[in-house]
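ok trying again, last paste got cut off:
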Amino acid sequence: MNDLTYPNPEKPWVNYGLALFKMNDFNGAKNAFAKAVDYQRDSCEAQNNYGRSLYELKDYRKASDALDRAIGFCQRTQFDEPHYYSALSYYQLGEVDKAKSRLDEVIKFYPNGKYIDKAKGLLETINK
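nice, full thing came through this time. structure:
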């Protein structure tokens, strides 16, 4: 992390954040991912995991903002997680229309994605 010649300085911070996240140290993970975002603002992985950490800390407003940024960076890699967790953040905030919109996007843009079944299930629950 202190090697100024390292070609991808965000990567060690992402890896450190992932380790902290897996140990349920969401505040530490959030700080590590924030450092990674400082180095590489358009990193899908850093932005998504920063948002996920905020979600786990129940800071849903900041989580939705970070995950919405991650959506733009993650589309080219067909990574659906930020869409799904953005929907969950909006749902937790009581912004049901935004949550439904994000869930619809998961279904439309990622028909083979990891979160397709969860998105369909949550959308069905919301629409009842």
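cool. The chain has seven helices and no strands. The radius of gyration is 15 Å.
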